[in-house]
Specification:
Chains A, B: InterPro entries: SpoVAD, SpoVAD_sf, Thiolase-like. Chains A, B: This is Stage V sporulation protein AD. Chains A, B: It comes from Intestinimonas butyriciproducens. Chains A, B: It holds the Pfam family SpoVAD. Chains A, B: GO terms for molecular function: acyltransferase activity. The structure is a homodimer of 339-residue chains. Chain A is an alpha/beta fold. Chain A folds into 2 domains: 172 residues, Stage V sporulation protein AD (Peroxisomal Thiolase, Chain A, domain 1); 152 residues, Peroxisomal Thiolase, Chain A, domain 1, CATH 3.40.47.40. Chain A contains 10 helices and 15 strands. A 7-stranded mixed β-sheet of chain A has the order 1-2-10-15-14-11-12, with helices on both faces. Chain A has a 6-stranded mixed β-sheet with strand order 4-3-9-7-5-6, sandwiched between helices. A two-stranded parallel ribbon of chain A has the order 8-13. In chain A, α7 links the parallel β11 and β12. In chain A, α2 crosses α3. The mean pLDDT of chain A is 96.
């Protein structure tokens, strides 16, 4: 057992990496929601000037990265590595966004947990002594996701009550080995948890057991109580998934009063017709890089546990009758280096 | 600049991780090729007892991992992390293989560079002090790849002369922080290189510039000459891509006599009707975990530079007229800890 390891799944960084810059880009619908003031760039037609939805998604990642680098007062050439991923087949949103950057690149696939996965790996890389600067990034686009996972937009398919709405958005974080924070102090890396849910229109229920597993492990590995954090935020379980996580903890005698969810936060449940809330890699990426990190900088929260949740299914696995494997990675972020 | 970094892209491990176990699984065609003696398990109908090609691919990963763990005399529960990926949409071969393992998991997408990407990240994790044991793993399956990227098998599509044959195979490496080697001493992390090749049936030409870029960078970052290595092996450029890399170096006045390619090695070019050779994440994974690492253990080679090459396209990006972004990660493996 190394000194940086707490329990089996949690890493405690010896030199917590500092968040030097963070930025996001979203679409029109997200810009009309309750978090509108926290977004850096809101596009009005969701094309970002491109000729396809996939290219639009790549454009979002490029804009978010450039903006995060600008805020960190760094050029892309400063970056030692970029860690990025998205939901598209073969992760083309990321590859085509990073193609022109000239930076060593690690491609990731963690479904909607990608923002937390990329932050975890970038932090391990910096704390491990392999570089000074890294970027972590993720995106999703409602239109590219709908036609790939569900039906063409023109079909106008009816959505089920448990469905979530894929966020059009991207978020990028620039991390530095030294800086003024906020700091990434811990990461709890998730195992795959699959409780047999087969309904691809009910991702919240499929991912909730993974979120419960990783959160419970984080608390036992670190010895911290949930109340240690000013905010515990999952992303993206939506209203139904969030309720399931609360139920699980309630059965353990724990009342998670400080739990919220990026998929619940990003849309107005009453006015925006999104059923169970937002989803997609871009949801937690945009909420983290806006509402959450802005809030930390403004003094609203000092300690946050950011828990990216992913459903590792594909349309093929669903058609072949498989259940939905879920995963959740938790990242502890603090304004203090000591956690 | 940290002491573990050489130049901009190369990492030199302070405590080189040791390869404690390695194993592979392949299909019938690979088992009839020139490397047949180096495979641990050869399946005769490529189904591995499963009802779909995608499930067969997952079964291969599970078998390769179990066999690699057995050789390392370890249980899955020993592993701190698994790093894995594949070519399928949403990387379901990996997710479903890892679902039952109960091990913290990082999902990767690096196309055919995935074996090198997973080895690099697993080595960074161990050398960074975040654990004692890790697994790195990748797979591909001819039948799942054909129907996803090209045409249904039943269609019997004609293949072009520059085409490569997707390997049905999986390879897994179990890495330990301490051990008797072979050791992972360095890794050069690739940038995306795209020279405008748009022919999805000519991946070798699309990936060759990335291989040249990473190899040149590795030599300049480390100060090593190509002749330092007993063998430099790319995977999977095939015959055409390998020729392009040789040409690039020839123009620099360098004669890479010790270069070979996993895609060239795995099939008999004359007798197996594979055109330019093998491809797929499983190609370099199966060649590394059999022919190459067995050869090192038998004393055939002391120092190898293993260079995974990936083409980061998708059928959608090709249909939208995009060129093919290539990437290459190079991993230096030595029987000596000092490199």
């Amino acid at each position: 057992m190394t000194t940086k390891k707490l329990g089996k799944q949690t890493v405690a960084f010896a030199s917590p990496p500092s968040i030097a810059g963070h930025a996001n880009v979203v679409g029109k619908k997200e810009g009309e929601g309750p978090l509108r003031a926290s977004f850096d760039l809101i596009n009005q037609d969701d094309t970002f000037g491109e000729s396809s939805w996939e290219k639009a998604e790549s454009a979002m990642q490029k804009l978010a990265l450039q903006n995060a680098l600008d805020k960190a007062k760094q050029a892309a050439s400063t970056l030692d590595f970029i860690f990025a991923g998205d939901l598209l087949n073969q992760c083309i949103a990321s590859s085509f966004a990073i193609r022109g950057q000239g930076v060593p690149f690690f491609g990731l696939y963690g479904a909607c947990s990608t923002m937390a996965e990329s932050l975890t790996l970038a932090s391990m890389m910096l704390d491990g002594g392999f570089g000074e600067w890294a970027a972590a990034m993720a995106s999703s686009h409602f239109c590219s996701a709908e036609r790939q996972y569900r039906t063409p937009l023109e079909y106008g398919g009816q959505r089920t009550p448990t469905a979530q709405w894929t966020v059009t958005g991207a978020g990028a974080v620039v991390l530095a080995r030294e800086g003024d924070g906020p700091y990434i102090t811990h990461a709890t890396v998730g195992k795959i948890v699959d409780k047999g849910i087969k309904d691809a229109n009910n991702m919240g229920a499929a991912m909730a057991p993974a979120a419960y597993d990783t959160l419970s492990t984080h608390f036992s590995d670190t010895g911290r109580k949930p109340s240690y954090y000013d905010l515990i935020v999952t992303g993206d379980l939506g209203t139904l998934g969030k309720g399931i996580v609360l139920d699980f903890f309630h059965k353990d005698g724990v009342d998670l009063q400080n739990l919220d969810d990026c998929g619940v936060l990003i849309y107005d449940a009453q006015g925006q017709d999104v059923h169970c809330g937002g989803s997609g890699c871009g949801c937690s990426a945009a909420v983290l890089t806006g509402f959450l990190l802005n809030g930390m900088r403004e003094g609203r929260w000092k300690k946050i546990l950011f828990c990216g949740t992913g459903a590792l299914l594909s349309p093929t696995s669903t058609m072949q009758g498989e259940s939905i494997p879920g995963i959740c990675h938790a990242v502890a972020i603090s304004t203090q280096k000591g956690g």
